[in-house]
Amino acid sequence: MVALSLRDEKEYLHEQLREVRSVMLWKLDGLTERDRRRPMTPTGTNLLGLVKHLTGMEASYLGETFGRPFDQPLPWYDDGGGWQNADMWATPEESTDYIVGLYRDACRNADRTIDQLDLDAHGTTPHAGETTNLRFCLIGMIVETARHAGHADITRELIDGSVGAAPDELSLPPDVDAQWWRTYKANVTNAADAAAHDRG
């Protein structure tokens, strides 16, 4: 196994972050305003809210932590609303263009931090006041975004059946169609029922 240089490591981690960011944004494509916003789980998970949440995470952990604050206001944090899930859904006044624009700008601010600092550069987390470094924050941001990209994947599938990391990128044979998925789901259901029956 070839050892990575610190530069290669940072470039690799940064590329992983860019990839999961792009997943988050394509999940909004082609949907109505209502579908981007409507809750699809009992806990209110919705696509635009996930992007709004990640905007604050990028601004905080790859900006403020390293003394590079995001230069645009995130009003849902002003009154502590972020702790009441105000960052997890969009108000009627917050357009998709507004939320996506803020996310892109927060990501650009984060990218400048990543580009200009070494992985071992120290920072202090804004809320907990803990000392950390860019490597930990970059990995943490990848994990946070990937986790929510998984939420977005399931949420989008519930809305219109679209799946995968990018449009038309699901790696399945061309003969996989709706009937194939129905048969597959029935097989999985039968296996679950059989396991439950066998184990009482």
Write the layout of secondary structure elements.
Layout: H1 6-26, H2 33-37, H3 47-61, H4 96-116, E1 122-124, E2 131-133, H5 134-160, H6 178-198
Antiparallel strand pairs: 1-2
Helix pairs in contact: 1-5, 3-4, 3-5
Q: Describe it for me?
A:
The chain is mostly helical and 200 residues long. It has two domains: 6-169, dinb family like domain (Four Helix Bundle (Hemerythrin (Met), subunit A), Up-down Bundle); 172-200. 55% of the residues lie in helices and 3% in strands. The chain has helices at 6-26, 33-37, 47-61, 96-116, 134-160, 178-198, and strands at residues 122-124, 131-133. The chain has a two-stranded antiparallel sheet with strand order 1-2. Helix 1 runs parallel beside helix 5 (134-160) and helix 3 (47-61) packs parallel to helix 4 (96-116). It is globular. The model has no long low-confidence stretch (mean pLDDT 90).
